[in-house]
Amino acid sequence: MNGGLLLTVIAMTSLWPPWPFGRDRERTPDPTGTIKDLESAEIAVDTTAPIDGGEAKAMESYRLFLDLASDDPLLQAEAMRRLADLQLEAGEVAELQRNLQSLGGNLGGTIDLYERLLESYPDYAKNDLVLYQLARAYEAGGDNERALATLDRLVTDFPGTPHFAEAHFRRGETLFVEQRYAEAENAYARVLAGGPDAPFAEQSMYKLGWSLFKQLRHEESIDPFMALLDRKLLMSDGGAEPDPAAVYTAMGRAEQELIDDTLRVASISFSYLNGPESISEYFNSHGSRAYAYIVYTNLGDLYLDQERYQDAADAYEAFVELEPQHAMAPLLQAEVAEAYKQGGFADLVLEAKRNFVELYGPGSPYWSKFTFEQQPEVAARLKTNLTDLAAYHHALAQDSRDPAEYATAARWYQSYLQSFPDDVEAPRTNFLLSEVLFESGNFGDAAFEYERTAYAYPFHEHSSEAGYAALLAYTEHEKTLTGGTQAEWHRAGLESALRFAAAYPEHEEAAAVQTNAAEKLFALRDFARARDVGLAVVGRAPPPKPELLRTAWTVVAHAEFDLENFAAAETAYTTLTTLVPADDPERPEITERIASSIYKQGEQAKLAGDTNGAVEHFLRVGRFAPSSPIRATAEYDAAAALVQAGDWSRAAGVLEQFRASYPDHELADDVTASLAVAYVETGQGVRAAAEFERIAESDGSDDVKKEALWRAAELYETAAQNPAAIAALTRYVERYPSPVATSIEARQRLVVLAEASGDVRARTQWMQSIVDADARAGSERTDRTRYLAAYAQLTLAQPTRDAFRGARLVAPLQDSLKIKRERMELALAAYTKAADYGIAEVTTAATYEIAELYNQLSRDLFESERPAELSDEELSQYDILLEEQAFPFEEEAIEVHEVNAARTREGIYDKWVVKSLDALAELLPVRYAKQEIGERFVSAIR
Question: How many Cα atoms are found within 13 Å in the side-chain-facing hemisphere of 633?
Answer without folding.
Answer: 12
